[in-house]
Design brief:
Layout lengths: L3 H11 L6 H16 L2 H4 L2 H9 L15 H4 L2 H12 L6 H19 L9 H11 L10 H11 L8 H12 L5 H16 L1 H5 L28 E2 L8 H10 L6 H9 L9 H13 L3 E4 L2 E4 L1 H8 L4 H10 E2 L1 H10 L4 H11 L7 H12 L3 E3 L5 E3 L1 H7 L17 H14 L13 H10 L10 H12 L6 E6 L5 H15 L4 H4 E5 L8 H4 L1 E3 L6 E3 L2 H11 L5 E6 L6 H4 L1 H9 L3 E2 L13 E2 L5 E7 L10 H4 L3 E5 L4 H7 L6 H14 L8 H12 L7 H15 L6 E2 L2 H17 L2 H17 L1 E2 L4
Parallel strand pairs: 1-4, 7-14, 7-15, 8-11, 11-14
Antiparallel strand pairs: 2-3, 5-6, 9-10, 12-13, 16-17
Length: 759
């Protein structure tokens, strides 16, 4: 870390940043514009787009202009950004940095994956720099931030815009006006640009530095002879590289690295030669370096581990792996099928007579988000991929032209690939869209009594259709709100639109709390049987059917998904849906009971998991949440539910039930449609001849049995208010038994400090 005196010396030498005058002027004008906008003006889509997309403060790398237009008019996102202006941040720099980090994370969760699959971390930092110019600077690349932290923050401190600006304020004094904020921010870029000279102690002469405003630099590809030919697509793809780098953080020998990896579940099946090749490739791509006979991560390696977007890996793959760049150039001209992409690779590198290497390259290009899968089965260049392709040189390194391959061979290869990858073919009949499903829900007799929130139907549909093969949704929230019913109804209406038998296309699996591995879903190979056999579970049967019929949809519903640890029993699904690689079912060379040893991930499989978050369930890890869209079900429209019931209406009882529901809602102890329906059914069981007194007694007993046990928790002001409201309600409605129980719960409160039904 630089001393205060060194920081002051460099600050004086850097002024007035020759060549950067126009950039500083534009920077200041941007800050003035943002400061002059009212909250109402700042909230307009045009100004939100300006905040998210302007390169005036600093350009960003690929993805800096990725489509996220929906965020510009999203009221939640806009409100969160406006709130940043007015929030009272902590005085302590460390606390302030943490608070701003938490708020940034909250905003990112509102934006991604709702409006973009990639988390726009750098774009958000740049946006905050425009709103909070005293807390942020204009350097957003990860390597640059590491350099600035190395120069200005104590050892062991991770980079923080807030802490960097606080250090400069401590050394140079408080800023006086926007001009000073701009200079402090630009100074951080200057430190990054001259990092090597500063670290070498060369404070006298600094090389000329080009202005940072401008298009990204072209990628200088390695010559063909130096490039790696293909890149093995191990199961976890990007995460594999991150695991290798993580394992090397403190320094490790190659042998210890391989031993550590082989002890992990994800890698213990790999041979020593595969692990050696993996280590060599991570080194060859520039993510590890050897110092004093130990391997350590490079700064690029640290960036790959710490940054959600694998930009640095994309750069290295284009630069050093043949023919990743050529694939992008190919699909830029026109969309291509998988066989066409693989055949093209074999044409430009005829030594690949098998399809393993070309398929691995295509897998990487897909996993890195450089291409998108179209409904017609072809791949086109994604917006992210187009930004990278634009940085490629006009002439790409290629094998010398004397090596050729015949057209007949290419046709044979294309036919072979088409057969192997037939699961990528488009469906023969288009799957229904949201308008068709809406109409189906309206006309389906079985949904007439079902309370459907159109926003929930829309969210479920789009979550299941926004990715070509990763269709995984978690439905969380209040028990009895129709989570399972919604999935069942959706699957039935969807299949009805395609004239499919629902029973053959929907599997509902109740998750067991004792599941520790995938056998409850995928079955297991029974080597102890007299004739070795494979025990097939219903879920595996559904997967096999989906793989055999790729043009038809299949639905898997995991009920109470988090009664067991999802990461344990669902691990093969999580890995395959992310990577697109097959699921391993057994280790035999040939099928057992018709079950193959590997199963290609079905692109037509729709997975939903219903969950309730309480003391009987397990939380989800980021590994699960990263692969799923989470929909929350807490809002309950009892009035619509009562109106939709075909049974005889009971207005007085309905009002009482709704009053209890509203009283419990502020403490999140309200109940769903199931409970409300069972309360009415409990009273209706007495028949129409029952006297009003008897019906009131039954309602009293029903609420006592079904509703009051939900009222539990610490004795907070909100909980005590809810208790008092319920007592008044019981008195007004003559619910004697419920009133007595609530009084007993209130009396026990001072002694136990909690409110609970059971005492």
């Amino acid at each position: 870390m630089l001393t205060d005196a060194q920081v002051k010396e460099l600050w004086e030498k850097a002024q007035p940043f020759p060549g950067w005058e126009q950039w500083q002027k534009n920077y200041r004008d941007m800050l003035l514009k943002v400061r002059g906008l009212s909250d109402k003006e700042l909230a307009t889509p045009e100004n939100q787009e300006l905040l998210w997309s302007s390169d005036t403060l600093s350009p960003l790398g690929p993805g800096g202009k990725a489509t996220m237009k929906g965020a510009f008019s999203d009221p939640e996102v806009t409100a969160a950004i406006i709130n940043v202006r007015h929030f009272t941040w902590p005085n302590d720099p460390g606390d302030r940095a943490e608070a701003m980090k938490d708020e940034s994370e909250r905003i990112l969760t509102l934006v991604s994956p709702r409006h973009t699959l990639r988390r726009p971390e750098a774009r958000l930092e740049r946006l905050l720099a425009a709103i909070l110019p005293s807390e942020f600077h204009c350097t957003f690349s990860y390597q640059a931030q590491l350099r600035i932290a190395d120069l200005l923050l104590p050892d062991g401190f991770v980079h923080s815009h807030v802490l960097v600006r606080s250090r400069l304020r401590k050394v140079l004094g408080n800023e006086q006006g926007l001009d000073e904020h701009v200079r402090r921010s630009v100074f951080c870029w200057w430190l990054h640009a001259h990092y090597e000279a500063i670290k070498a102690g060369q404070f006298d002469v600094f090389p000329a530095t080009p202005t940072p405003i401008g298009p990204p630099k072209p990628i200088a590809l390695w010559p063909f002879a130096r490039q790696f030919k293909a890149n093995a697509a191990l199961r976890l793809l990007v995460e594999t590289y991150r695991h290798v780098i993580d394992t090397s953080l403190a320094g490790t020998t190659r042998e210890d690295l391989r031993e550590e990896l082989s002890s992990l579940d994800d890698y213990n099946a790999l041979s020593p030669s595969t692990l050696r090749s993996l280590t060599a490739r991570v080194i060859g791509l520039g993510f590890l370096e050897e110092r004093d006979k130990l391997l350590y991560p490079t700064w690029d390696g640290i960036e790959l581990v710490e940054r959600d977007a694998p930009d640095v890996l994309v750069h290295r793959m284009l630069e050093r792996v043949f023919p990743i760049a050529a694939i992008l150039r190919l699909v830029k001209t026109q969309p291509r099928t998988s066989p066409e992409i693989i055949s093209y690779q074999q044409q430009i590198y005829p030594r690949w007579t098998a399809i393993m290497a070309p398929t691995a390259n295509l897998t990487w290009v897909k996993a890195l988000g450089l291409v998108e899968h179209q409904s017609d089965g072809k791949y086109r260049l994604s917006e992210y991929g187009a930004e990278w392709e634009a940085r490629l040189p006009q002439e790409l390194p290629m094998l010398p032209p004397e090596a050729t391959v015949s057209a007949d061979l290419l046709e044979d290869v294309a036919a072979e690939v088409a057969q192997e990858l037939k699961s990528s073919e488009p469906p023969t009949r288009p799957w229904p869209g949201l308008p068709e499903l809406r109409q189906g829900f309206q006309e389906d007799p079985q949904t007439q009594g079902f309370v459907l929130d159109d926003s929930q139907l829309s969210a479920l549909h789009h979550a299941w259709h926004c990715h070509p093969h990763k269709r995984f949704v978690i439905l969380a929230g209040l028990s009895g709100t129709g989570k399972t019913a919604l999935v069942r109804h959706y699957a039935r209406v969807y299949c009805a639109a395609l004239d499919l038998d629902l029973e053959k296309h929907l599997e509902v699996v109740a998750v067991s709390p004792d599941w520790k591995d995938p056998t409850g879903l995928l079955g297991y190979y029974n080597a102890l049987h007299e004739t070795p056999t494979f025990q097939v579970e219903p879920t595996l049967r559904l997967l096999l059917s989906a793989a055999q019929n790729p043009s038809k949809p299949y639905f898997l519903l995991l009920d109470e998904m988090n009664l067991a640890r999802v990461e344990q029993y669902f691990a093969p699904f999580l890995s395959s849906m992310e990577s697109g690689l097959p699921i391993a079912l057994h280790g035999q060379d040939s099928p057992v009971n018709g079950v193959p040893h590997r199963l290609a991930w079905p692109r037509n499989l729709f997975i939903a998991g219903t969950v309730n978050m309480d003391e009987s369930t397990f939380p989800f890890s980021d590994k699960v949440l990263d692969r799923a869209f989470t929909l929350e079900f807490w809002d309950v429209n009892l009035r619509a539910f009562f109106e939709a019931r075909k049974a005889q209406r009971q207005p007085a009882m309905e009002r009482t039930i709704e009053s209890f529901h509203q009283a419990l809602r502020p403490v999140r102890r309200h109940f769903g449609y199931r409970t409300a329906g069972e309360l009415l059914a409990f009273v209706e069981a007495a028949g129409t001849e029952a006297l009003p007194e008897e019906r009131l007694r039954l309602l009293d007993q029903g609420i006592f049995s079904k509703v009051l046990p939900r009222l539990r928790g610490e004795s907070s002001p909100e909980m005590r208010t809810a208790l008092a409201t319920l007592k008044r309600l019981c008195e007004a409605e003559s619910l004697k038994r419920c009133g007595e129980k609530l009084s007993q719960m209130e009396a026990n409160n001072p002694r136990t400090g909690v409110i609970r039904f059971w005492s």
